[in-house]
Design goal:
Blueprint lengths: L6 E2 H9 L1 H9 L19 H19 L1 H6 L6 H4 L1 H16 L8 E7 L3 E10 L4 E8 L8 H14 L1 H7 L2 E9 L4 E6 L2 H18 L20 H4 L4 H6 L1
The structure holds iron/sulfur cluster.
């Protein structure tokens, strides 16, 4: 890997989970740029990942398709009866609309941002006022969000240094939130300039650590539970080779 390598949010959190997972992921994805999410086949994705991508895509599609229904105070569409995730999402959006109608509709959905050293897709950006905004991440469930603080800071930092973001949004990120679509929970935190500066330094340290070549697996790995989609590769690496990585 080159000294200036481009790090995605997924690679970053993979490293925090397990350096070996990061290594395997990065080996398979050596392109420095990766475009925005588009229509694609998810057939070869691990089930959990394809399910997540499905919901990310469909929640935003639902919002776009029903924007006028929300604004007209229409009743929830029939799909909210058969799919509880849409019901929870409808209620969440109705509440947001009631609290702040003028800033309700997101100013961007699935916004791909990049800088020389980082990249990622911000699920949505919401205006707070003319000067400030909130980046929002979708996640399935609070219990499966081990590195949420780091993720939200990564996106906030990426937004701040990304030309794409600044040209399109023209606002400063002052909040970062997460909507959990399986439970309907919502969490949000303030993002200060100091938070961004400390995260910048932290990320620089993590990047340095990544380049030391010490990609030993985490000893508390949950291999047996098959939580990691890289277990299928990882378990086939001979012990001797692992030490040489
Ligand atoms: S299975 Fe465990 S050790 Fe292997 S890559 Fe995944 S988290 Fe790391």
């Amino acid at each position: 890997m080159n000294q200036i390598f481009n790090l995605s949010k997924t690679e970053f959190t993979a490293y925090l989970e397990c350096p070996l997972k990061f290594y395997l992921m990065k080996q398979q994805n050596q392109f420095t740029k990766e475009g925005p999410r588009g229509l694609r086949s998810y057939l070869h994705y691990p089930f959990a990942a394809s399910k997540g991508i499905y919901w990310h895509y469909n929640l935003n599609k639902f919002l776009q398709e029903h924007k006028q229904d929300f604004l007209n105070g229409a009743p929830p569409p029939p799909i909210t009866i058969s799919k509880p995730i849409f019901k929870l999402f409808w209620e969440h959006e109705e509440h947001r609309l009631a609290v702040d109608p003028s800033n309700w509709y997101p100013i961007a959905l699935e916004l791909y941002c990049s800088s020389q050293t980082a990249r990622g897709i911000i699920d949505r950006v919401e205006s707070i006022d003319d000067q400030s905004c909130r980046v929002v991440e979708y996640k399935s469930n609070p219990s499966k969000s081990g590195f949420l603080t780091e993720e939200l800071l990564f996106y906030s930092f990426l937004a701040t240094v990304s030309k794409d973001f600044n040209e399109k949004i023209k606002r400063t990120v002052t909040q970062a939130g997460c909507y959990f679509y399986s439970t309907g929970d919502w969490t949000c935190r303030e993002i200060s300039r100091d938070d961004l500066l400390s995260f910048r330094d932290y990320l620089a340290e993590v990047r340095k650590e990544m380049l030391t070549g010490n990609w030993a697996p985490r000893h508390n790995c949950s291999l047996l539970k098959q939580d990691c989609s890289y277990a299928v590769v990882c378990t086939k690496i001979p012990e001797k080779l692992l030490k040489e990585l």
